[in-house]
Design brief:
The chain is mainly α and about 130 residues long. It folds into 2 domains: about 1-45, no CATH class; about 45-130, no CATH class. It is about 50% helix and about 0% strand. It contains 4 helices and no strands. It has helices spanning about 40, 45-65, 80-95, 105-130. Helix 2 (about 45-65) packs antiparallel against helix 3. The chain is globular.
């Protein structure tokens, strides 16, 4: 991620709680003000940030479905090669979109991660097929 990329934390407003925008607020919370001020409360999120998060999720799913990482939901480590392949293919499709939009070292790290996933997929898939 670029240095300007920071995790986004959303404020969640409970039902019936005022949004804090004030009397002239127009957000779409239960305060009934309508929604226009909601964007003013959100930090700016760039598409690159969202894509980096998405790539991280695809990578996490690929490692789990290769049987390399434990699935935190089940506590099990199992391989699901079609799911791993889909996640890897999604990463492969998105990395070129980010060329020229990320710092060189970040793009290099993404490409290295992709190569590592592809190598692990090939090794584990071929070992399973034997």
């Amino acid at each position: 991620m670029t240095e300007e990329t920071k995790p986004v934390e959303e404020e969640v407003i409970a039902a019936g709680e005022e949004c804090g925008c004030g009397d002239d607020c127009s957000c779409d919370d239960d305060c009934g003000c309508g929604g226009e001020d909601a964007g003013a409360q959100m930090p700016e999120l760039k598409v690159e940030d969202l894509l980096m998060w998405t790539l991280g999720e695809y990578a996490r799913m690929a490692w789990m479905n290769l049987g390399i990482q434990t699935n935190p939901a089940t506590g099990e480590t199992t391989a699901d090669f079609p799911q791993a392949r889909l996640a890897i293919d999604c990463i492969n499709a998105l990395v070129p979109v980010l060329e020229g939009k990320l710092e060189a070292h970040v793009l290099r790290d993404l490409k290295n991660m992709l190569s590592s996933l592809q190598m692990n997929y090939a090794q584990r898939y071929n070992a399973e097929a034997k």
